[in-house]
Every structure is written in structure tokens, then in C-alpha cells.
Amino acid sequence: MTMSNVEDNSEPITLNTGQRLALNLDSHIVIDAGAGTGKTMTIVERVVQHYLEKEQRATRLLPRPERPRELEGGTLISPSSQRMNLQDWEGLLPAEVVLLTFTVAAADQMRDKLRKKIARLQSGSFTTSGEFDADPRITHEGLPEQLLMLLEDAPIGTIDSFFNQLVSPYRSYLGDEFGEDVVTESEILRITEQSINTLWRLPNSPNLYGDAVDAGIPSNDVEAVLAARDRITQHYSGRNRATSILNPIIS
């Protein structure tokens, strides 16, 4: 990926007080806000700060992982004299920042917004305009292009895909001979529909809680799960409407 391949239609942003507080890299944060209030934008800004900032808890406490000295190949446009020796970079590289989402679409959106943000970066005193974001931490003109290339293999994805990557090298020890695509999309839909139908059929009677346990619900959670099911059914005026709401959430 090169900078010229990224469509830069992002606009300069202005952070409010709460969003600026979220950029404190030494703090654990929870962003709780309504739709359209800038949650994704704030997370993207925080991730970029992890890439650029050398003074952060991660760089102070954790040993620096093994890094490539530089990125080779014809995909980089900037001359080698403008590229950073990545072993000397004091911030984090994209491969060292994990960004997890609940859906593939959300992960793709995050990666796309990060591309556009990084493509705007250039060396210079802190300045933001309609075309670029100048940052003195960009010590080499080719660094944004290097970050863009590394971003393509960065751990940005769903929770299950990330843990699948962690487990994959050890499948032989686990007795798992499946490939990476353990469950296809059609199988996911079938299993989801089957699970919801099973949930509707379970009786809400303490004498029959064993049926719920047999269906895979932990015994300590049976009462709460069935009560939640009944509330959902009542709220959406029937199973059909409730099923249409639950299906995309579970899938």
C-alpha cells in the first residue's frame, strides 16, 4: 500500500474536551457515547497517537519486539533516504497495536479511517489543514508510507479472528485439524437460527431447567437467560420480531 493509493477525503478534526482526555495513552479508558458523537474518530486518533508517541506506558514498560529494519520492495515510492529505520522508531508500529471489534464491517471501517488519517501525516510543526496534518514526530518524509504498508497486516479485526490467529500455530497440540475457516458463513447462519429456535422452545419452569442445561446454558445462568428471553419476546410483541432483532446481533 502506498500513500498514492489511499483516497484522502477525510477532513481535519477538532476534538472536544472528553475526546482529548481519551488520548491519554497512560490511562485505561471506556468511551460511552451515543451514535454520531465521534467514538470511532476518537479511537482512530488514539491509535495514531500510539504509533507516533515515544513517551507512553507501552514503550516504557514493555520490551521492544523484533522489528524489520526497513520495508523492501517496489511498493514504496519514497526513496530510501526518506525512510525510517524501523528498529529505531520509538513509537509503536501498527503490528504492535491490537484493535478489536465485534464485526468485520467495523474492523474494515477502522482500518480505512486509519489509512486516511495516516495518509494525511507529514513532517512539520503541529498544523492541521484541509489537506494534511503536520506533526514534528514524523522525522522522515517516507514514514507515513511505511506505516500505511504495515497497517495492511496490523491486528485489526474481530475478537474471534484475533484469537484464532493466536491459537492457529498450536492447533496440532489441541487436536484441531481444521483450517482457518472452521465455520462458513452459511453454517453460522444455520447455527444461529437453530440456537434461537432452541431458546424459544425451552420451558420457563424451575422443574424443567435441566432442558436448558442440556441445550448448553450454564446452570447458574438458566434463570437469567430465560427471563431475558421472555422480556425480549414481550418487548418486541412476539418471537418473529424478536428473532429478526437477535439474528444480526448474534451473527
Can you put this structure into words, describing what you see?
The chain is mostly helical and 251 residues long. It has 2 domains: 169 residues, Rossmann fold, CATH 3.40.50; 66 residues. It is built from 11 helices and 5 strands, in the order αααβαβββαβαααααα. A 3-stranded mixed sheet has the order 2-4-3. α2 packs across α4, α4 packs antiparallel against α5 and α8 runs antiparallel to α11. It is elongated and about 75 Å long. 16% of the residues are buried. The N terminus is likely disordered.
Q: What is the CATH class of the largest domain? A: Alpha Beta
Question: Rg, please?
Answer: 23 Å
Look at the structure and give the mean pLDDT: 81
Can you list the strand order of the major beta sheet? 2-4-3
User: Could you state the oligomeric state of the chains shown?
Assistant: single chain
Number of strands: 5
Largest sheet: 3 strands, mixed
The rounded distance between the terminal residues' Cα atoms is 31 Å
SSE pattern: HHHEHEEEHEHHHHHH
Please, how many domains? 2
Annotated CATH topology of the largest domain: Rossmann fold
User: What is the helix fraction of residues, given as a range?
Assistant: 40-55%
Compile the SSE list and pairings.
Layout: H1 17-21, H2 39-52, H3 57-61, E1 99-101, H4 104-119, E2 121-123, E3 127-128, E4 133-135, H5 143-151, E5 156-158, H6 159-167, H7 171-174, H8 185-201, H9 209-214, H10 222-235, H11 239-250
Parallel strand pairs: 1-5, 2-4
Antiparallel strand pairs: 3-4
Short overview:
With 251 residues, the chain is mostly helical. It has helices at 17-21, 39-52, 57-61, 104-119, 143-151, 159-167, 171-174, 185-201, 209-214, 222-235, 239-250, and strands at 99-101, 121-123, 127-128, 133-135, 156-158. The protein folds into 2 domains: 3-171, Rossmann fold (3-Layer(aba) Sandwich); 185-250.
